[in-house]
Amino acid sequence: MSKAESKVTAKEPMHVIYCGSSLRDGTLHRYALFTDGIPQHLSKHIEACPAIKKMFVPVEKLSQTEAAIRDHGTPESVFFQQTSDYAAGKRVEE
Fold it and tell me: What is the pTM (predicted TM-score) of this model?
């Protein structure tokens, strides 16, 4: 396999940014950037509030996601509210 072929088949790191509310325990902050996808240490929070996972977006989609959060009734707006409720210690309804 040539170097060119290995570059094509090598998986590119997935850069994502978190657009939900910051968590009280400090494990996740709004606009935190991750260079290799969603961190494993957040799995307990994602299990408790699945909307957290939906608020990780590719960096290229940040502006689009922010606009959707401000547009009431969009899935992004609903997910943001769920992350806010979870961050405030409220029970999250799916």
Answer: 0.82
Say which residue the tokens 């210690």 belong to. Answer: 89
What is the per-residue DSSP string for the chain? --HHHHHHHSPPP--EEE-SPPPTTSS--TT-EESSSS-GGGHHHHHH-THHHHTEEEGGGHHHHHHHHHSTTSHHHHHHHHHHHHHTTPPPP-
Closest CA to 61 of 23, 18, 29: 18
Q: At what angle do helices 75-87 and 62-70 cross, to 10 degrees?
A: 80
- What pLDDT is recorded for position 42? 96
- Per residue in 11-52, pLDDT tens? 667 899 999 999 999 999 999 999 999 999 999 999 999 999
Extents of the domains making up the chain: 15-87
